[in-house]
């Protein structure tokens, strides 16, 4: 029997299932950068501060000089930011900061609350600055919603990329951001994450398929929520059912799913996990279990802005020549 539950078009953001809250796919073909690492192009005709409409192939989002998201708060969930092309400059109210990209992943447990910014510095002054990222919101159970915030980096070099070949030597590569696959396991997940418990079988994979490749997603436990997001390609079949491009496919987790690609490269994102099965009450960047929890989050943020903003600018970016690095709230530094 087919493993397919439902097929549905992808919107913005992508609809997800418990324990995930949503997923956003950002793909922007930014031009050359200017002196301030913003676009070396006119910003006329853009709704600066709320620029979410693609114009000339890119968006400014909430940025005024540099594209991206200036300081904003979170409480009660986690953000998983997967950057496949380009770079993000992260800064937060705990004093942590980083530049990461080109395959790196940031996994941040907001817990009881923090502010952070995510700016997209356009480092190249002599050529375009393409950016692609996924931001996935993963819920926290009630017992973990008020844990201390945690900022973690999963560097590209630590993330397994597993190569498979079918009987015709057509290849499929699976990038294992979280979860287990064959003899591989994803990198270390922050300790209070729902994904840190292997019993929850949380998986975040990027699946790249060559033209005409065939690969089978193995079965997992029954009762998980499992969805693949087919965001690039044309001609994919799942269990011999043709899937339109830019659609999501909900799957029965206890069944194998046979993927057969068409004559173009295909890219998919897989999200899987055991549902938390608790009430979800969301108000913007706060996700709690009750309206009272939301009201408390708003009062706490109004009181002290979750620690304030320790950086000299809202659109805080690092020097152009700075490489990939992270400085954690305790002063520990990683340099790549």
TrEMBL record:
Residues 207-307 form the Pirin C-terminal domain. Gene3D superfamilies: Jelly Rolls. Residues 60-138 form the Pirin N-terminal domain. This is Pirin family protein. InterPro entries: Pirin, Pirin_C_dom, Pirin_N_dom, RmlC-like_jellyroll, RmlC_Cupin_sf. CDD domains: cupin_pirin_C (cd02247), cupin_pirin_N (cd02909). It comes from Fulvivirga lutea. Belongs to the pirin family.
